[in-house]
Amino acid sequence: IGRIAPDGRLNGRVKYEVTENLFAQMNAQLTNEPGYSQGMFNLDYKGKDFRTQCQVGNNGFYGGNYIQSVTKNLSLGTEGFWLQQQRKSGVGFLARYDTKNMVATGQIASTGLVSLSYVQKVSNKGFPCY
Ligand SMILES: *[C@@H]1O[C@H](CO)[C@@H](O)[C@H](O)[C@H]1NC(C)=O
């Protein structure tokens, strides 16, 4: 998939199913302003009860995450990243609880991020998908 904006920016995305469980994805945004072009490569693996992802971006971005189903309704995850140029890194933890009618998530990271979310289904139509 590719798109060129009127100002000359080019967005492109390539998604490739390597196997039934392994996906590769590349996203790129190219501009003619120096330093604003971005590229990101993702590798996703979906196991029976876990999901993991590796990310490599231009400008020395490396990241990864891992989410494991603990029970039918509860998943726990962890993520980390490393920014080579800024010599910054971070780790985070995520919990997600879902039932037929609601999804609750909590997230905390060494960057200072703390986030809680709760989504309750109110009708059979229009339940948000993540
Ligand atoms: C787990 O989720 C299922 C549906 O996804 C729901 O029927 C069940 O009540 C949930 N269990 C608990 C303990 O919330």
Automatic annotation (TrEMBL):
Keyword Membrane (UniProt): yes
Entry's Gene Ontology BP terms: protein import into mitochondrial matrix
Membrane topology (UniProt): Multi-pass membrane protein
Keyword Membrane found: yes
Molecular-function annotations in GO: protein transmembrane transporter activity
Transmembrane segments: none
Keywords on record: Membrane, Mitochondrion, Mitochondrion outer membrane, Protein transport, Transmembrane, Transmembrane beta strand, Transport
Family under the similarity heading: Belongs to the Tom40 family.
Name this polypeptide is given: Uncharacterized protein
Primary localization class, coarse: mitochondrion
Cross-referenced InterPro entries: Porin_dom_sf, Porin_Euk/Tom40, Tom40
Top-level taxonomic group: Eukaryota
Location in or out of the cell: Mitochondrion outer membrane
Record-level GO cellular component terms: mitochondrial outer membrane
Organism encoding this protein: Aegilops tauschii subsp. strangulata (Goatgrass)
